[in-house]
Amino acid sequence: MLTVLGFVMIATFLVLIMTKKMSPMAALILIPALFCVLVGQGAHLGAYVLKGVGDLAPTAAMLMFAIIYFGVMIDVGLFDPVVRGILRFCKADPVRVVVGTALLAAIVSLDGDGSTTFMITVSALYPLYRRLKMSLVVMTGVAATANGVMNTVPWGGPTARAATALKLDAGDIFVPMVPALATGLVAVFLLAYVLGRRERKRLGLLTLDDAGTAAGRAVPAGEPVLAAATGGFGARVRTTVLRTAAPRTAKARPAAAGGGNGGAVSADPATVDAAPGTSAAAHGTDGPAPDTDDLQGLDPHRATLRPKLYWFNAALTVALLVLLVLQTLPIPVLFLLGAATALTVNFPRMTDQKARIAAHAENVLNVSGMVFAAAVFTGVLTGTGMVAHMARWLVDGIPDALGPHMGIVTGVLSIPLTYFMSNDGFYFGIVPILAEAGAAHGVGALEIARASLVGQALHMSSPLVPAVYVLVGMAKVEFGDHTRFTVKWAVLTSLVVLAAGLLYGII
């Protein structure tokens, strides 16, 4: 009976959140509470929840202060020079542009938030793709796949969920997986190179002349100007002439206005039309081509910038990541110290610190709230014995030949399951069952947790991931086109991560 009720509870949870009848947070709390009563253990609900909360508190603290830390680093301009350098690297070569897309998305993904990654990446590179007439689904596909691989950082979500669901330390899951994930990231760069070569073959090799060295050469009438090819992120750029472009005539379209929070682009796909601060020429629309153009994804004059503290912030971030990998201190403690240091040094005034915390409060509340809501789900699932009964049923159904290879089974299953269901449903509903089944065959929970990260390259293009709508909305790409283009490459990347994990003995 507990087996049936356990599967019904998970199915109810998945259906409700996938059909958007309930929010994940509400479903994580109310559905298990109801089923706890149905199995006749309602009197123990409080004990189950408190036990779960105690187990998950370190994970919630880690996510809370990691969001604050990286939010502050974006506010103070830590990533702005990185974007400027990538734009200079890209120039007008489609290969460089696509590889630069992967590089920028991977670097910005260190903040663990897909929406932020896509906002910055598309804001910086969208005008360049449009001006070169490159395929925008290449940009969205490469950015989503790179972000999927990098999303496995402990503060990014999947690793924290796996640690939460199996009551493990996030560092113990993530650090051994670094070689396999690094191999997956290399695969993304190789993919970007191949796609860039394809774009170069389709468009031809474009050459650029810097107007500043053109010895006074006048730009012929109708010859479009490629602003942003040599430009900076949030800075005025030198005029660059695209020699191979032909004159066009069409109606100009106004650029969208930037939003708040330091000038970040609006995340609402219904209102996002273009990167803020870019002209009609930069978007590939016609009209008079300006001599200079603004390319800005974050307001270059925002009050939160701290250029004099740039190297301090860079050193602090590098030190934090090194200590994280070395596991010198628990990850929650590292981010507690890092966030406090970043706030104190960059914003000595109390009012400024409060403003920065308030600016990121919504993300902090959503993420930490989800973790504590999950305490109800995992606490009831474990405390009532449902997960044990389901695991025994699952073990009985797995052929003996596959039992010792539950790590591989988990890795393969993670690819479709994390696409067709949310991370919450997979990690809180499925992974604990796989871990129990693996334990019966001598496969440790850590191996199952690591294997469960394999499918994240595909997951970031799932229709259940809100951030992907920010990506396709800002890039003006139809979601169906993005899906058709990206799925095959993301699946291949996930299989590379799985193969690397097997090769290195991690899984």
List keywords for this structure.
citrate transmembrane transporter activity, mainly alpha, 507 residues, 20 helices, 4 strands, Cit_transptr-like_dom
Structure description:
With 507 residues, the protein is an all-alpha fold. It has one domain. Helices cover 64% and strands 2% of the residues. The protein contains 20 helices and four strands. Helix 6 packs parallel to helix 19 and helix 10 runs antiparallel to helix 11 (331-346). It is globular, with a radius of gyration of 24 Å.
Concise account of the structure shown:
With 507 residues, the chain is mainly α.
Uncertain spans: 208-297
What is the strand content? Answer: under 5%
Report Rg: 24 Å
Structural class estimated from helices and strands: mainly alpha
The description of the largest β-sheet is: 2 strands, antiparallel
Distance between the termini: 34 Å
The shape is globular
**Lateral arrangement of strands in the main beta sheet:** 1-3
How many structural domains are formed by the residues? 1
On the 0 to 100 scale, the average pLDDT is 77
Number of strands: 4
Helical content, roughly? 55-70%
Order of H and E elements: HHHHHHHHHEEEEHHHHHHHHHHH
The number of helices is 20
Keywords: Membrane, Transmembrane, Transmembrane helix, Transport
Membrane topology: Multi-pass membrane protein
Domain Citrate transporter-like: 14-455
Subcellular location: Membrane
